[in-house]
## 1
Amino acid sequence: MTVPRQPSPPDVPGPPGPGSPEGRRPEDRRHMIRRRWLTATIIVLLIGVPAGYLLISANQSRDSGRDKEKKYSATGLTAGWPSKVQRRLYDVPVPPYSAEVAYYETNNWRTSRLYVQFLTSNEGLETFLEETGTSARRLKKDDITISKRDQKVVGWEFTGPGPWSGITHDQDDPAPTQDIVVNRSNPDHPMVYVVSRTTP
């Protein structure tokens, strides 16, 4: 005679162990709000702070450019470098890494002129003069070679602290002739003024 099988008892879950996921206490509302607030703050700092710095830097750069434009527009000069074509045509090789670069060009049926100013190093000045066909040794002390007329065109006034020196580098047409004035009030960074004229 067979005894009928008893159904096995259903699995009854035991108490959760300390390492099981069910062992964690449910997160209360206050803790959840604090965690989310902390996460949001970190995200804002990671994204917002660099973006803020970029925005401030861009505004400062734009304001600096506007200040230069205002400064030079009153004299007719344009802040920035002459084009490569202008530099080649008028033989004004502005040295790399120059600062305070500005220029102005005039053209008429008889003579074209390029006015350029830049702040450079002593090495940059020597290189510039050599590339135009002269040298720093040929600069003459207190010789303001740029005429009053040309000074007036772009508002240059060579009356500040010096020492000042200058040279006129004459060349046969159609090569340009350059009037160059150098201010060494900062002995390490001379300010250079050039008027290069050519006859079409």
Note: The chain is about 35% helix and 20% strand.
## 2
Amino acid sequence: MTASRAQLTLAEVEAIAREAHAAQRDKAGRPYGEHLAAVAEGVRARGGSDEQIAAAWLHDAVEDDALTERWLADAALPQQVKDMVLAVTKRDGEELAAYTRRVLATPGALLIKEADLAHNADPARLAVLEPATRTRLTEKYALVRGLLGLAAPRPPAERQD
């Protein structure tokens, strides 16, 4: 992220996100922090910037009421991070087409949503869900990928250690 001392570091953003979601579990009953870490890592592995990684850590915070929009507005974060978080935040009653248009219109947000969808659609995560839920979510994720122009899940680049 930017080199300003006043800005939160990635480590601080991660700690804030983990604490904000500490009591939350995902649909499979796993600690929600695992999802946040997977999305942040997915963004990093796909070549995302520090700003995109920060937004990945916070991508569900406002939507899940873990943090408020006011908190986000006042946070010591670059405006680009705030814009990406709000772009991927679904709003009550919002049509999917409007949501995906906002993601596409916000610089940097598509990569965050791509990493989010990739983790959400991970067959290992879906396998533990009830069949009806698994089918519904698989169809939903495919629809969102299509609207975003992401034809199929793209795994992160192979790591070269």
Note: The first helix runs from residue 10 to 20.
## 3
Amino acid sequence: MLMRTDPFRELDRMAQQLMGPGTWSKPSVMPMDAYREGDQYVVAFDIPGVPADAIDIDVERNMLTVKAERRPVAKDDDTKVDLSERPLGVFSRQIVLADTLDTERIQADYEAGVLTLRIPITERAKPRKISIGVGSGRQEIPG
């Protein structure tokens, strides 16, 4: 058996035990990436081991809220756990979305433990050219 040495593993384990798993009133934070891809904004959340039916996505005004719950795997009475490092409990993330995003057309996909939200950018927020009109000449203002 190969063991990897991590000097902070024990410290991380103790911190997790002290803080405990996330609850609905005090969830743990889930890692995410956010970036623009063409005419849409993409937000990807890492939540491996969470079934799709345990994920809630809500938008209220411009506040996007994602909550997920990872429950322990059912074990037999004769099962003895030697090591348990995967965090359990509730995970959550809230993001304030810009007014330039179309929250009515958000698409959500969940594959391989990654929840990906694609939020279209509104037409009014897309870059556009403004033409310059040529006036009929100079006008003097009488003073």
Note: Residues 35 and 42 are 5 Å apart (CA to CA).
